[in-house]
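[audit] Reproducing an earlier prediction to check determinism. Same input, same settings, fresh worker. If the tokens differ from the archived copy the diff job will pick it up downstream; this log only records the rerun itself.
[audit] input (99 residues):
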Amino acid sequence: MTLAREEVKKIAQVARLKLTGEDEERLARELGAALDFVQTLENEKGLAREEPTYQVTGLKNVYRGDEERVASETLTPSQVLANAPQKKDGYFQVPPVLN
């Protein structure tokens, strides 16, 4: 499969690449060879009939389960603020974002 220079220019534009005329010709040949190889795989190995594989491990939405915690397992406000560089009235003190 041969790619036209216009197609290579469009691909380069989408990829935000700046190509010279030599680069465009070389990439047209190389991309064409890669597309030929994929076409060969599809035809010879029957891959055109295969469904695309999006997830190879079979895992779906793996989340940690919700666990109820007893209040004694959580930190107290004084423990949370113990290592804070600045604190005021039981809160973290941070520099103002807007002046």
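[audit] rerun output stored. Observation attached for the diff report: The two ends are 61 Å apart (CA to CA).
[audit] end
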